[in-house]
Design brief:
With about 775 residues, this protein is α+β, with helices and mostly antiparallel strands. It is built from 24 helices and 11 strands. Strands 1, 2, 7, 8 and 9 form a 5-stranded antiparallel sheet that branches. Helix 2 packs parallel to helix 3, helix 3 runs antiparallel to helix 7 and helix 12 packs antiparallel against helix 15. Keywords: Hydrogen ion transport, Ion transport, Membrane, Transmembrane, Transmembrane helix, Transport.
């Protein structure tokens, strides 16, 4: 599989499949494994519940739901996942449903018993803890003394005793309550008894139950005078979900009985858990086989619902890639022979219906898949439209490298990506959403990082430092203003930027100007190339009118003005400007083309001849205006003429709508050319940000240690600052900056480049396939690792 297969989508054949109804299931099963036939719904106007096999599909969904129940139970259990086997006895949906009903019924019964016994076990365990800690909340003597003092004081003061307090004997209540509710319960009890209670609390160290929120509990001993107050307290405790206990006469005997009951329940729970695990282990052997069988049956039945039925024959139209036609025919013939089909299955090629577009299909491999995924995230290419992913193979890493051009940072990311590629057989078994995303993009990370290393050599950036690899072409000179670098005109720096520019005082001015102009040149070249791709698409689609009315003015406008801009940038680079000269500002010169056509300000003179420059810029202005008017008027005129020659009330539009739409399109295109060109300045801006960040990290971290005097202090400082420098380099520059550059690449690819030719009005080729997701062993690991 080569990258050329990304150029245009595969040629699709429109076919009609006619076969015996009895043979449809085995034929569809065979075609499913080929993964190369997309069926067309012949009953799209028929409601789903009215189709032939709607009841069968409902049955399959029920079985699938039951199967998912058992699968989920196995995934959340601790049973070992055995090797998957095929169960020959349950080879149909009916037999599988019977088997699942039996297994689920037994499992649910055991699970219900287990939950009931577990609750009872927790209750006994809590009761045992209460008995063990009764002595820590025993305040009966103190409560009785306090109660006698209260009664004596009441007699002295002559306080009246209400009927409800006539029985003033103390009543004891021992209960447990969730720790977070203890304060609220005591406060409520205090209010309902008018403060006439005595209590003591104790916090259990042990956690009770399986619920994280209700596991922490307190033991409370409460003494209340009077039966009426006791009744109120009991109602309050019940409303808060407290567990009340009676204090036994013989606490030791009660503890012994609780321990014996607890041992019995623990044994029961152990046996119940073992029986549940045995059921899950037996079922786990066949889960993948059953899942695949149910998925295939669901796919086959759903596809058969798309067929037209004629007595004992069925037919359906489908899309098949031209390259796979012979494979499909051979598979059908083999199935007919194996199943002893009386009427031969026919696969008839047909003409593509008018107005119908075939699906879009691009075969990909592990390298090209990520580039195609970037395009698919934006939109599916129209059938036989040139695929942007073909150009992304080189364009995407190239634009990325202009923003992330550093030899060392590129090497770090390339090395990490290389490790992912080298160990991909082992790493592809790791199933984590974040890691899978990075692993899927390992090849694009590697190629982008390699491009960044090359661009870093051109920029002469090594951790934002310039290295004098080939020997500088500048030398020190002395004049009236002091020492400065002077170019040696007898030498030319062989590759990239001379390292002296990194040390010069005007380094920022030069590098910014260079990268900014380079970004504009690259951007305009890419957009012009996108328009050339659009021309190829229009020629392939035989849209001559679109070429004349739309493409020529669009390309002419951009080439006239922005092509002249590129020419001026390159011309200014090539011309030698003496030190005392005043080179023109290109921005002012280009603005003057539209503000003062034909006139050249002396400060904006680029060419030697003012007359030549005036003539060229006048021509640029005229061409830009002519092409803009051409784009605005040609398409409406053509559409009006076409409507008069071929009137169609359903598709014809009003003249005003046509004109307004084309005027809007023209304005959008003209302004879009300017905004898209400005958008490419992000190539310069991010490169500047990256180099400045790297320089700041080096100067403020390693630079401080390098400048320090003293061996001990310098070594200790270097040890500390190097860790900070390493963390900043990896975390900020190699990760955050790399992600930022990648996102900006997406913007340039999707908007600035794709908008020039990519219509993205297709739909993806979705063949009948038998893929049903990860196996039980993988999904169990994923669930249990959470």
């Amino acid at each position: 599989m080569s990258a050329s297969e990304l150029w245009r989508s595969k040629t699709m054949k429109h076919c009609n499949l006619i076969m015996k109804r009895d043979a449809s299931a085995p034929i569809l099963q065979g075609l499913m494994h080929l993964n190369t036939v997309q069926f067309i719904d012949m009953n799209e106007n028929v409601p789903a519940f009215s189709r032939t096999f709607s009841k069968d599909i409902a049955k399959i969904y029920d079985v699938e739901q039951k199967l998912n129940f058992m699968r989920t139970a196995i995934e959340h259990s601790t049973v070992r996942i055995p090797d998957q086997l095929k169960n020959i006895e349950t080879n149909s949906i009916v037999s599988l449903e019977q088997e699942l009903d039996k297994v689920i019924g037994e499992y649910k019964s055991l699970a219900a018993d287990y939950i009931s016994n577990r609750q009872r076990n927790d209750e006994i365990y809590e009761q045992l803890l209460v008995y063990k800690n009764l002595s820590k909340v025993d305040i009966k003597d103190q409560a009785e003394r306090d109660n006698e003092e209260v009664k004596l004081q009441a007699q002295i003061t002559g306080a009246l005793v209400s009927d409800e307090n006539a029985d003033d004997s103390l009543n004891s209540v021992v209960f447990t309550i969730q720790r977070k509710l203890t304060y609220m319960v005591i406060k409520t009890l205090y209010r309902v008894t008018y403060g006439n209670i005595y209590y003591e609390t104790f916090q259990f160290e042990e956690r009770l139950g399986n619920d994280d929120e209700s596991g922490d509990k307190d033991l409370v001993s409460l003494f209340v005078p009077g039966q009426e107050s006791l009744a109120r307290c009991q109602k309050v405790l019940n409303s808060f979900g407290a567990h009340m206990y009676e204090v036994p006469d013989n606490v030791e005997t009660a503890k012994k009985n609780a321990v014996e009951a607890l041992d019995a329940f623990n044994m029961t729970l152990l046996l119940s858990k073992q029986r549940q695990d045995n059921i899950l282990a037996q079922t786990a052997k066949y889960i993948d086989f059953w899942t695949e069988m149910v998925h295939e049956q669901r796919q086959i039945t759903h596809t058969m619902n798309m067929f037209n039925t004629h007595e004992d024959m069925v037919s359906c139209r489908c899309w098949i890639p031209e390259d796979n036609m012979e494979r499909v025919r051979a598979e059908i013939e083999a199935i007919d022979f194996r199943e002893h089909v009386t009427a031969k299955t026919m696969l008839v090629e047909e003409e593509v219906p008018k107005g119908v577009s075939p699906p879009t299909h691009f075969p990909t491999n592990k390298y090209t898949a990520v580039f195609q995924a970037i395009v698919s995230s934006y939109g599916t290419p129209t059938y036989k439209e040139i695929n942007p992913a073909y150009f992304y193979l080189y364009q995407f890493p190239f634009t990325y490298s202009m923003m992330f051009g550093d030899m060392c940072h590129g090497f770090i990311n390339a090395f990490v990506a290389f490790l992912l590629i080298f160990n991909e057989k082992k790493l592809e078994k790791i199933h984590n959403d974040m890691f899978e995303l990075i692993f899927f993009g390992r090849y694009i990370i590697f190629i982008m990082s390699c491009y960044s290393m090359i661009t870093g050599l051109i920029y002469n950036d090594f951790y934002a430092l310039g290295f004098n690899v080939f020997g500088t072409t500048y030398k020190w000179a002395l004049d009236s203003s002091g020492t400065k670098f002077v170019a040696d005109n007898t030498k030319v720096y062989p590759f990239g930027i001379d390292a002296t520019w990194h040390w010069a005082d005007n380094s920022m001015i030069f590098l910014n100007s260079y990268k900014m102009k380079l970004s504009v040149v690259i951007g305009i070249m890419q957009m012009l190339f996108g328009l050339i791709v659009k021309l190829i698409n229009l020629i392939n689609q035989k849209k001559t009118a679109q070429i004349i009315c739309v493409w020529i003015p669009e390309f002419g406008f951009m080439f006239a003005f922005f092509g002249y801009m590129v020419f001026c940038i390159i011309y200014k680079w090539l011309v030698h400007w003496p030190e005392d000269s005043n080179p023109p500002a290109l921005i002012n010169m280009l603005i003057q083309i539209f503000l003062s056509p034909g006139t050249i300000d002396p400060t904006n003179q680029l060419f030697n001849s003012n007359k030549v420059q005036s003539g060229v810029q006048t021509a640029v202005f005229l061409f830009a205006v002519i092409f803009a008017l051409w784009l605005m008027l040609a398409e409406p005129i053509h559409e009006v003429i076409h409507m008069k020659k071929h009137p169609n009330p359903e598709t014809d539009r009003a003249l005003s709508d046509i004109i307004v739409q084309q005027v809007i399109h023209t304005i959008e295109y003209v302004l879009g050319c300017i905004s898209h060109t400005a958008s490419y300045l992000r190539l310069w801006a991010l490169s500047l940000a990256h180099s400045q960040l790297a320089e700041v990290f080096f100067d403020q971290l390693l630079g401080i240690s390098i400048k320090m005097t003293g061996v001990a202090g310098g070594a200790l400082s270097l040890l500390i600052t190097y860790g900070a420098f390493f963390g900043a380099t990896i975390g900020v520059l190699c990760m955050m900056e790399a992600l930022s550059a990648y996102l900006h690449c997406l913007r340039l690819a999707w908007i600035e480049f794709n908008s020039k030719f990519f219509t993205a009005e297709g739909y993806t080729f979705e063949p009948l396939n038998g893929e049903c997701g990860y196996g039980l062993a993988i999904t169990s690991d994923m669930v249990r690792s959470e």
